[in-house]
Design brief:
The protein has a single domain, classed as Peroxisomal Thiolase, Chain A, domain 1 (3-Layer(aba) Sandwich), CATH 3.40.47.10. The protein is an alpha+beta fold. It has seven helices and eight strands, in the order E-E-E-H-H-E-H-H-H-E-H-E-E-E-H. The protein is globular. Strand 1 and strand 2 form a beta hairpin. Strands 1, 2, 3, 4, 5, 6, 7 and 8 form an eight-stranded mixed sheet that branches.
């Protein structure tokens, strides 16, 4: 029988709110998506110049990962190849695809084109944290906690990974949601069991 696994942190960003472990830690309702992401970046005192070059989807996922791991991640516990990412969304990279299509009418933009794949977001998070473990990006109509629980459990149960960021990062124009989870074998003070029910409860915590 496989050992229990634990959700040791979570971060949900939607409706111009940032929730960490189901508590609202930032809110900025009086702005558009671009300004909201920038205001959250500044509020949390992040310093990563490459953030400004990212498309909105990557900014959203990267920002959620930074908040997720803050005070919950000890890099000395794992080798880079022992940490992975498993993400999903409904719109792939459509938001950026549409922006790139607009540039094609004049001069195609290489800086926009580079983000016309959804897994570029995973690359941005991995580069930032030196994660080199298994990673995957799926496109579903809606968030599937059952699939995520089974897929991530398989990676950890078979010692492919020892820890994993997984979840949902979807964005199209002003409609967006990120819900990321940090799962490990070891308990922490705020741990809850890694179950489909707990994943779904957190995903819906913002009522979004």
């Amino acid at each position: 029988m496989f050992a229990e696994k634990y959700l040791n942190a979570n971060c949900v960003i939607s409706n111009h709110l940032v929730l960490k472990n189901e508590k609202t830690i930032f809110e900025n309702k009086q702005t558009d998506l671009h300004e909201f992401l920038l205001s959250a970046y500044n509020y949390f005192g992040l310093n990563y110049p490459k953030f400004y070059k990212m498309d909105n989807s990557s900014k959203l996922g990267w920002l959620a990962s930074e908040i997720l791991l803050k005070d919950n991640f000890n890099a000395e516990k794992y080798r880079p190849d022992e940490i992975g990412l498993v993400l999903a969304n409904a719109n792939s990279s459509l938001d950026t695809d549409l922006k790139y299509f607009e540039t094609v009418k004049d001069i195609p933009s290489p800086s926009v084109f580079v983000y016309t794949l959804p897994n570029i977001m995973i690359g941005e998070i991995c580069i930032r944290n030196n994660f080199k473990g298994e990673n995957a990006f799926f496109v579903f109509e809606e968030f599937d906690a059952e699939f995520m629980e089974k897929y991530v459990s398989n990676l950890i149960n078979n010692n492919i990974l020892k820890a994993c960021i997984f979840g949902w990062v979807d964005l199209l124009e002003e409609d967006y949601k990120a819900a990321l989870f940090w799962v490990e074998k070891e308990k922490s003070e705020q741990s809850i069991l890694f179950t489909q029910d707990n994943i779904n409860k957190i995903f819906k915590a913002d009522n979004g």
